[in-house]
């Protein structure tokens, strides 16, 4: 299996622009998570889905952030409009067994908002 | 609000030394504690602990959980330069699947 696949790997954009990050989870995994990592705050959970349904989005910073999972093999995280404070590495992770807590992470999308 | 705190924030030791990384947690309906290693990119899973006092071991790495005192430690013996990484601790609770992560310990091994 190719693992969790994220794109783009790097994104540099200007403040106010729309940013879309994409994720393909491991086939057969039924839970998908979006995390954001910064030096100051570490890894923060933004939202997670189970069987394509959003379960907990309490970590989504504000209305500028939205996430979708239209099917079991694809998810997007959108920021509109982007701001410099959104600069971070965004990780997508998936899991098979909801009881183990073991997440498989993608390699992340590094976002820089100028 | 669930909270996971790791210490130290960073650690620099010489190759061959033994290190102990600490993780304390305050989590409602605690279920498990997990350790991850993050090198340049994605965190990778090391251990999951659910029971107090039972050591999990993998090569030179070992970990134990104390559910009474609400902490866990990760030990690495005979450290090697390849152990240089950020070590992340995370806690889960019953009722949902989300992991609450600490900010990590950045470990640097000097040859």
Q: Can you give a write-up of this model?
A:
- The complex is a heterodimer of chains A (114) and B (111).
- Helices cover 0% and strands 54% of the residues of chain A.
- Chain A is an all-beta fold.
- Chain A starts with a strand and ends with a strand.
- Helices cover 0% and strands 59% of the residues of chain B.
- Chain B has no helices and eleven strands.
- The radius of gyration of chain B is 13 Å and the shape is globular.
- The model of chain B has no long low-confidence stretch (mean pLDDT 94).
- Chains A and B meet through β4, β5 and β10 of A and β4, β5, β9 and β10 of B.
Strand tally of chain A is: 11
Strand proportion of chain B: over 45%
* Amino-to-carboxy terminus distance of chain A: 36 Å
Structural class of chain B: mainly beta
Major sheet of chain B: size, sense and barrel closure? 6 strands, mixed
Mean pLDDT of chain B: 94
This entry's quaternary arrangement is heterodimer
- Taken in chain order, the helices and strands of chain A follow as EEEEEEEEEEE
Instruction: Figure out the total of helices of chain A.
Output: 0
Low-confidence runs of chain A: none
Number of helices of chain B: 0
What can be said about the biggest beta sheet of chain A?
7 strands, mixed
List the chains of the largest interface with their residue counts. A-B, 25 and 21 residues
The rounded distance between the terminal residues' Cα atoms of chain B is 41 Å
Helix content of chain B: under 10%
| Proportion of residues in helical segments of chain A | under 10%
Task: Give the overall shape of chain A, derived from the CA principal axes.
Answer: globular
Question: What Rg of chain B do the Cα atoms give?
Answer: 13 Å
User: What fraction of residues of chain A sit in β-strands?
Assistant: over 45%
Key structural traits:
A: 114 residues; mainly beta; 7-stranded mixed β-sheet; 11 strands; 0% helix; globular; B: 111 residues; 6-stranded mixed β-sheet; 5-stranded antiparallel β-sheet; 59% strand
